[in-house]
Amino acid sequence: MSMWQNIFAVKIEEMHVTDPWTLLEDDALQVQACKPGWKEFVQRRALGRFQCSQCFYNWSSAKVHILFHMYHCPGWGTVWMRIFRQKCRRCPNSRLEDPQFSPDTVETILHNLVIKILQYFYKKPVQPSDLLEVVVDRPVTGPHDCAHLEQVHKEL
Q1: Is 155 a residue whose pLDDT tops 60?
Q2: How confident is the model at residue 86 (pLDDT cuts 50, 70, 90)?
Q3: Are 48 and 114 spatial neighbours (Cβ–Cβ below 8 Å)?
């Protein structure tokens, strides 16, 4: 989480957001369940790499989803994030595994998050072209298998 927080702080500064913002993780965050005054952003395409904790099989997915809930008060802001996990398709009783991301992927995701913060809370005009696509730097093989996604991830 510290890599995410460090890159987030840099992105906030680079994009001239003057209020301090905090980035925290919440594995219970739900899609379309924001508290009043909160805003939601979902990064729907991110390249993540997984490893099964049982059989050690490795796989990549270009469709990892990351959910953000954001809130701003005068003088400060906070973001809660949830990274959706996946199960190994080789193990019959596999666990949900956390993905790993390259620093470049994290930078792109957090760039998009800060763009949304500027749009939602600072009324900056944003064009769809301001959001960056996550670059897939290696071939991702196999079908996208919804049966092995974290339940809430399927609803996105």
Answers
A1: no
A2: very high
A3: no
Alpha-carbon distance 5 to 138, whole Å?
26
pLDDT digits (tens, 9 = 90+) for 105-145: 999 999 999 999 999 999 999 888 899 987 766 555 555 55
Query: Which pLDDT score is estimated for 153?
Result: 47
Sign of torsion over alpha carbons 136, 138, 142, 147: negative
Examine the pLDDT at 25 and tell me if it is beyond 70.
yes
Cα distance between residue 77 and residue 73, in whole Å = 6
Angle at 136 between CA 134 and CA 142, to 5 degrees: 125
Residue in the structure block whose two tokens are 């003088």: 75
pLDDT at 151: 55
Q: What does the chain look like in DSSP terms, one character per residue?
A: -HHHHHHHHHHHHHTT--S-EEEEE-TT--TT-PPTT-EEEEE----EEEE-TTT--EEEES---EEEEEEEETTEEEEEEEEPPEE-SS-TTPPEE--B--HHHHHHHHHHHHHHHHHHHH-----GGGSPPPP--S---S---GGGB-HHHHT-
Closest by CA position to 22, among listed 103, 76, 83, 74: 76
- φ, ψ at 5 (rounded to 5°): -65, -40
